Every structure is written in structure tokens, then in C-alpha cells.
């Protein structure tokens, strides 16, 4: 007689699904304590020098969003390779193409307007997990690429206007924006835009002024300056949450191989099964093509 349970022979073990309404693990603080952020109702801005670890943070968030059963991903990555591994998990993956970027942002704006109309009709102010609508997580790696590098001046201005609208209004509609910039300057991140991001992460900066542009005015003078971060301490940042004090963190870094593994698994759990969706039924997002 054997007491060993037979090894499962069918199916793939599926872990409990994550939710975008769950706290997202992003790393540890200076005491080694875990640091979480809740993105469902807040946007996040990551700023700092190239090589500081901004894309690392975006990938950490992308991993949670990809594994969250109630999230859709919209990725804008002018460099293609920073978020490229998540393409199969994403509803839209935009490379260095301003026309495609504008199209996807206009579409998101329409989805957001529809959601607000729906909320209003129900006498509500914000989406909750119980609504069954997915959180559409929008990740933009390098705002300046779309707002100052590619496209005509008019297109760049439209990009900024659409992004600002999404950042300003998207959060209660379940459309949080996570954006990175290596150019924390007033022309790329005006104060009025910066303040719309509930979470801001300042990776290594070269001047107290650029650190202040990310974290908020006056923090460098109070001793919270991302100029303190050593260039060799990649992934270290000051993270501030709306109304709080900057906290020194070290982002949990995912290697390319780890991302590839998670993205593969996430794409698998997101695969269309063709069983639960009746043919011809468009999802909310697809309906606004
Ligand atoms: N949290 C981290 N822990 C350890 N190393 C990191 C971390 N984040 C980034 N790095 C290292 O720094 C390099 C640059 O990081 P990246 O996220 O691409 O910077 P940025 O997007 O700010 O230019 C990565 O290739 C990696 O080697
Ligand atoms: Mg980067």
C-alpha cells in the first residue's frame, strides 16, 4: 500500500489570480519591509536618470497587471524592448509610432467617457472590483518620446492633452496610468500634470530641481533628494504617495528570463478559450475600436 498521493497528470497548476484592486508588491524599504502600491485608483510617475531603474519598476507593475485576472494592459514603449515581453498579454502594444499612440489614447478616452456615463446612470462615482469591469492599466515608457521626440508638434500636443485627460480622469474609471520619464523637466512634466500622479517615484536624479519635479516642490530642501542615490544603486528610488512623505525603496527587479516566464504564464491564463464568450460578443474595449 502506498501513502503517496499520485502526481497530477492533467491540467496545469493555476495559482490564485491576482487582482488590480490588490496591493502590488514593488520592492522593499530601507528597513527591509515590503512596499506595496494600490494602482486601481492612482496613477504613478517614475522619473530619473537613464539607467536608474524606471523600466524595472514598470516591468514589476506590468507583471502584476498581466497576472491580474481583472486587468487589461495597454503598453506604449518607444524603445520596444522595455515592455516588449508583455506584448502577448496586452490589448495594445504601441512602439515608436505616434499615430498608433494617439489612436489608442483616443480609444481609451472613449472607454473612460463610457464608463463615467455608466457610473452616472447608476448614481455612482467610482468603479469597484464588484463591477466586473476590467482595470485598464496603461504603461508609458518615456513620455518625452511621444510628447517631444516623434511626430509633428500638433501630434505631440494632442498626445500630451490625451495623456493628461487620462491621468486626470482615468483613475475613478479604473484606467490608471503608469508613466516613466528620463527627462524630469518642467517642459515634459509641468507641475499641473505631476500633481495628478498619486504616486511618484524619483530614481537617481542629477539635480535637486529634477528630484523636486518628480517628488514635489520642496522635498529636496527637506532632505529627500534623489541626488543622494548612488549611480551604482540601480533600482533605488524615493517613492511618495499622495499626502505622504517620500520613502526610500529598492524596486524588486525581474530579470529578462523571469519576465519571459511570467509573461508566458500570464499569456496562457489570458488565452481566449472560446468557451465562455459567445461568438460575436465584443468586450467593452473591443466595442470602441
Ligand atoms: N531594482 C533593481 N535592482 C537591481 N538592478 C536594477 C534594478 N533596476 C534596474 N537595475 C539595473 O539597472 C539597469 C537599468 O535599469 P532600467 O530600469 O532600464 O533603467 P531606466 O529605465 O531608468 O533607464 C537594468 O538593466 C538593471 O541591470
Ligand atoms: Mg527605461
TrEMBL record:
InterPro entries: FtsK/SpoIIIE/SftA, FtsK_dom, P-loop_NTPase. It holds the Pfam family FtsK_SpoIIIE. ATP binds at residues 48-55. The keyword Nucleotide-binding applies. The keyword Transmembrane helix does not apply. GO terms for molecular function: ATP binding; DNA binding. It comes from the Bacteria. Residues 32-212 form the FtsK domain. Keywords: ATP-binding, Nucleotide-binding. PANTHER family: DNA TRANSLOCASE FTSK, SPORULATION PROTEIN RELATED. This is DNA segregation ATPase FtsK/SpoIIIE, S-DNA-T family. It comes from Micromonospora coriariae. The lineage of its organism: Bacteria, Bacillati, Actinomycetota, Actinomycetes, Micromonosporales.
Amino acid at each position: 500500500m502506498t501513502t503517496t498521493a499520485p502526481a497530477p497528470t492533467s491540467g496545469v497548476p493555476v495559482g490564485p489570480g491576482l487582482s488590480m484592486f490588490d496591493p502590488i508588491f514593488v520592492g522593499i524599504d530601507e528597513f527591509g519591509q515590503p512596499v506595496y502600491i494600490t494602482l486601481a485608483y492612482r496613477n504613478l510617475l517614475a522619473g530619473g536618470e537613464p539607467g536608474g531603474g524606471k523600466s524595472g519598476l514598470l516591468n514589476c507593475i506590468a507583471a502584476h497587471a498581466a497576472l491580474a485576472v481583472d486587468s487589461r494592459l495597454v503598453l506604449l514603449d518607444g524603445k520596444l524592448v522595455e515592455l516588449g515581453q508583455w506584448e502577448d498579454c496586452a490589448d495594445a502594444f504601441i512602439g515608436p509610432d505616434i499615430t498608433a499612440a494617439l489612436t489608442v489614447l483616443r480609444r481609451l478616452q472613449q472607454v473612460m467617457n463610457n464608463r463615467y456615463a455608466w457610473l452616472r446612470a447608476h448614481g455612482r462615482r467610482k468603479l469597484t472590483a464588484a463591477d466586473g469591469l476590467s482595470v485598464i492599466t496603461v504603461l508609458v515608457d518615456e513620455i518625452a518620446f511621444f510628447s517631444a521626440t516623434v511626430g509633428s508638434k500638433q501630434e505631440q500636443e494632442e498626445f500630451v492633452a490625451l495623456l493628461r485627460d487620462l491621468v486626470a480622469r482615468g483613475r475613478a474609471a479604473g484606467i490608471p496610468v503608469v508613466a516613466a520619464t528620463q527627462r524630469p523637466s518642467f517642459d515634459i512634466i509641468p507641475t499641473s500634470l505631476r500633481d495628478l500622479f498619486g504616486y511618484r517615484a524619483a530614481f537617481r536624479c542629477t539635480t535637486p530641481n529634477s528630484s523636486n519635479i518628480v517628488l514635489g516642490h520642496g522635498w529636496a530642501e527637506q532632505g529627500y533628494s534623489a541626488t543622494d542615490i548612488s549611480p551604482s544603486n540601480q533600482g533605488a528610488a524615493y517613492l511618495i504617495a499622495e499626502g505622504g512623505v517620500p520613502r526610500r525603496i529598492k524596486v524588486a527587479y525581474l530579470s529578462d528570463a523571469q519576465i519571459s516566464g511570467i509573461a508566458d504564464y500570464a499569456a496562457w491564463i489570458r488565452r481566449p478559450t472560446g468557451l465562455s464568450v459567445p461568438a460575436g460578443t465584443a468586450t467593452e474595449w473591443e466595442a470602441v475600436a
